[in-house]
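Bumping with the actual sequence this time:
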Amino acid sequence: MSAPVHAEAPAAGVASRSYLLRAADQLATAMATYGVPLLILATTGSGALTGLAYLVEWVPRLATFTVAGMLVDRHGPHRVFRLANAARTVLAALTIAALSALPGSGAAGTVVALCFCAAAGGTAQVSFLAAEAIGSAHSQQSPRRAHRVQSVQIGIDQGALIAGPLLGGVLLLAGPLALLAAIAAASLAAVGGTVGWHPPTAASAGTAPTTSFARSLGAGLRTVARRPALVWLVAGLAASNLALAVIESSAPITVMQRFGHTSAMVGVVWSVGAALSLLGLAMCGRSIDRWGLWAVGAMGAAVVCLGSLTTALAPGFATYTAGVALLLGADAVMTVVLRTLRARLIPSRGSGATLSVTIVAVLLPFPLAGALVAAVPASGLPVLLTTCALVQITILAAAFAGLRRHRADLAAPVEPLRLVSPHADETSPTDITPAA
């Protein structure tokens, strides 16, 4: 009876450390995601350039995801995570140096900020995919507690969403260099946390044969195509993200130009929403244990749609903040459900390639949202938000119906996850899956 105890102890230690590293990484990402567009709006006053910043940030994210999946499968998620955060630290330091040598405002500074948006977006998504691969391994090690693993991870993300925008907005009042220094510090902390860290990794990681980007992408696409439930899951997440992304990218314009508040209040809006999402996550685990994934997921989806409509039709700042809070709180619960189902559907072998394909599809709405906000005048944003909310309602309803039709696929066990030390011999894997 002692073997399972000894097996679980190292796994628990790995999980705790990965949670801390994910927290530092997500804090840096949140400050960059929300702070840099605010910086551009504050210095230029242009809503179009704010939408452009969002677009410029997300296009490299999608481009690097597919490459990141191949890197994770080949080199292991912990190595990829370390290098991505090191690159972001260097990028932030170079941007600080460039902005220090330029005038306080002007086209040159805006171009530098946009370049940092693009580069930081790419490195952020590489580190995110690596963290997701590690989290997927933890979920598969403990199938009965998979939804609780996902709750912790999403709780970390939402905690960063509370601190990141608020901290970014406050730091921006002290100047762009303070914001960039904080991003560099959080990224450096993530790098430092990996020193001496050699967690178990999927057996395929670090031992995958050399393959081209196209073949890696094709393998991921074939895995998704063979599982209709995974297609419906991705469709539902993508539709929900479109509404969320349009709200997110238009928030600086709505709060600062429509409602007449400061940049710090943009952070307050998202921090209030993230706080409510943490409350939802705190209740999520027990709710799923009691009522099941389907009931909790359907309720979360319904409240998500209500929050989107409330935000789109808000007549004032208080109602707008309440709508965003409702949306983020319910979205966290729904995401726990859908990511738990995704962990059941993605096999461990080649998981990096499959994860990258699904994540790219789910995140495509984010650059699309930036393009839409850049193209639509501020007066047309309520119509855009309402349209996206209606699209969200329609596709989420179809997605949950499709998932119900293919629930047999969700019940089928995925390929067992064999874990090895990155320094172990490839032919002698050690199964550290805890006993049921």
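The tokens above came from a reply further down the thread. Strands lie at 201-202, 419-420.
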